[in-house]
Sequence to fold (116 residues):
Amino acid sequence: GGLVTILLGPAYGYFLQQLPYLTCPTENLSITNCDPEDSATFAGDIPAFVMHCFIISLFASTIGPVAGFFCSGFKRACNKKNFGSLIPGHGGVLDRCDCMFLMASFTYMYLENIVF
Fold:
């Protein structure tokens, strides 16, 4: 699964950058005429956008699954078996969403500090 994430993340990013309604600015809910190749983010043999997709997918496939271990360690430190009973037998919502919280935090920090 991790290898597929690393390979498909940049491939999907390359596909998405070809769609003008995702890369061109809008004005009054209509797409303005632009060429994504004019932007440094989408130009070149390996565009910067694709490299950013690769870095995020690399983090998602290597560090993302470790979030479950962090959550389990935190629960053990608190002497709790489950953090909730909304999903019986699954340790609560935090156990189901730990990777998503980690990825959302990483993506926000990456976008704010590296990309923009």
Remarks:
- Helices lie at 2-16, 20-23, 48-62, 67-77, 93-115.
- The longest strand covers residues 26-27.
- The chain has a mean pLDDT of 83.
- The two ends are 30 Å apart (CA to CA).
